[in-house]
Design goal:
alpha+beta, Lipocalin
Amino acid sequence: MLLVFLCAGPSLGVVENATAEAENATIVDAAAASTNESAAQMAESAINLSYIWSVSNIEAGPITMVINQDGSELLGQAKYEPESGAAWNGDVTGSVSGSDVDLTMTAQKEGVLFTTKMTGKYASDTITGNWTQFSGGKKVGNGTFMAIWVSPDTASYTPAVIAEPKAETPAPAEEKTVVQTEENKSETTDSKSRFVDVHQYKDKIGPGGDLSGIPPGMGGSGLN
């Protein structure tokens, strides 16, 4: 009996160890499967921001922005086309983590560079948050914004048409006009009156060169 017990003791320990190892392996496999399933679910439910958006409360009118998403990286463009005033185009970069969205928009408005940083959260097809704008190394504005997606067709986005600045036309050269004063006119008239062609009075000249028929002061030179 003692021999049988001694022989059976080690065998029982081996079985128990094997069972424990099997249970541990099962737990590890289950945990791995759960992790993979969670990752798959997160991938399926990841936020997709690849849309054309309408962004309000930054400019006087809506800004149109297109975002193309590559994983957590966001790249795109923006444009502003007011009914009156200057239009502009800009570039957009950013990232998304969960529901947190960070965007940076850089645009040149009438030759001046502006950078607008936007930080918000995505929910119900809308991004809401705060914006801060910088230019020339200074903060020039801030506030809240709202972005609503308007189209999934990102390929249909087109930049704003920017009017070319008009070339300045040089002013015509000033024409100098000689203004004749009354004094100059009088002198000209007097000089003309002192020199009279006596040929017009030839019928009034008497025989022998009599000049009595010529008005006073009109004489002088004889006929040629």
